[in-house]
Amino acid sequence: MRKIISFMHLSLDGFVAGPKGEMDWIKVDQEIFDHVGKRISEGDTALYGRVTYGMMENYWPTAGDKPEATRHDIEHSKWYNKVHKVVLSKTMKDEGLTNTTIISDKLSDSINELKRSGSKDILLFGSPTATHSLMQLSLIDGYWLFVNPIILGQGIPLFTDIKDKIKLNLVTTRPFTCGVTELNYTVDRQ
Fold first, then answer.
1. Alpha-carbon gap, residue 181 to 33, rounded angstroms
2. Which CATH superfamily is domain 10-122+135-157 in?
3. CB 23 within 8 A of CB 158
4. What is the pLDDT of residues 20-73, one digit of tens each?
5. Residue 172 main-chain phi, psi, to 5 deg
6. 51, 98, 150, 185: which has the highest count of C-beta atoms within 10 A?
């Protein structure tokens, strides 16, 4: 069965965005892009909440075609255009969407069916609201976190409304020269 891995940038104090959704504090550079690109290139399914999907869809389909496109833009645009996208939304319809499926109800059943449908990990990108919903249903199997060297003090927390403890196993860590540290955890289901 496939696993859902939550991919998220966060502050040292556990926020994924500022109080108004600001993400201008997130550090990314070519070293991080190269590292992330290798791992996501092995995946065939990206999972998003409605808001994050809208941001991705407005940029990535054509990002690699622009004259000023970086190597990262070109590579990620190619990946984005070929990967199957799954969006959690109660308001969107999948009519006319390319290579995209909308999950609007029966979240637990639909996600478990998605997990049984292939062999490669499903990457949940950003999407704090979707992450919170899946977390509450114990549907996330791992956390791929990029901890940024900043304390925001307030904002949108990654971990909120947790009813039961979630035990994690640290798989890997990696410091990047820009000060970001990758923490890769699996959920301990025992």
1. 13
2. Dihydrofolate Reductase, subunit A (3.40.430.10)
3. no
4. 999 999 999 999 999 999 888 878 999 999 999 999 999 999 999 999 999 889
5. -145, 160
6. 185
